[in-house]
Amino acid sequence: MKKPLFSARFALSAAFSSALCAALLAFPAAAQNFPERPVTIITPYAAGGGLDVVTRAVAQRLTALWGQQVNVENRPGAGSTVGTTAAAKARPDGYTLLTGSTPLGVAPAVYANLAYDVKRDFAPLSMIGTTPEVLVVNPALNVNSAGELAALAKGGRKLNFGSAGSGTLAHLAAASFNTRAALGGTHIPYKGSNPALTDLLGGQIDWLFDTPTAVLPHVRSGKLKALAVAAAQRSPQLANVPTLAEAGYADMDFRIWIALLAPAATPEPVLRRLEAGILEVMKNPELRAQLTAQGWDLAGTTSKEFAAFLDKELPKLAAAARGAGVKVD
To answer: Domains in the chain, start-ordered, CATH in brackets?
Structure first.
């Protein structure tokens, strides 16, 4: 005698429901043991730059906390969009994270047809800190202030400037200052901070904006000269360097931030485990001292605080990029 069709369907549905419930119940348990293998942080910036240095410092502390290696993978290019795209397409299991920064807001105003949407494709974890952009020049220019740099350009000197890439905050700050100071310079984009600094040191370009982390060693050695800080207040690490406002250029506040994000579909328990780990290492006194010495104002926000920050910051950056005429070079 044949069994009724609905009985077979009921049995199949019951089996599926049981399997689904088991999978859902397994998520919290799996999160307790996360991570069970190495984690990769995709950093869409060149090795050795300020954001890379911070990412590696945090990764080192997470490795010690979790007992699993946290690797940093540099994927620079196209104003950070190459690495960001890779992170957006990564499996959402918590084992691939993204170093996020201000290009997340600038890039949509600069690059057409981006393969990702920040709000749709990423889950905020925590903002690590912020730091101001610093205007630095090659000492061969023989200028000691932003005003003297502008005077040099007005006297007919052609001044080319570099950045860590089109669509980065360094590009936005430089393009804005180039316009405000009427320097008439040509933008030379690089695939990261380090290549740009190498050419500045070698005299291939004349000036740029970068983070204190990246420029402080060169400023202290006398190989570069810091002219101004793009912030409302002076940097403790560059106490003798005036702000751009003090130099006569008001409303030139460009602070870069660094944060960690995960692919949006990452299970919620894993996201909370990641967030808890980041918040824990941000309490580390040695890490805090290291990053503070490099010019970072530490944040260590919760995911909700970081999400609220992004809601305001992303449209503000996009508007600033459009206003400054930032474009792909």
So the answer is: 37-130+257-323 (3.40.190.150), 132-238 (3.40.190.10)
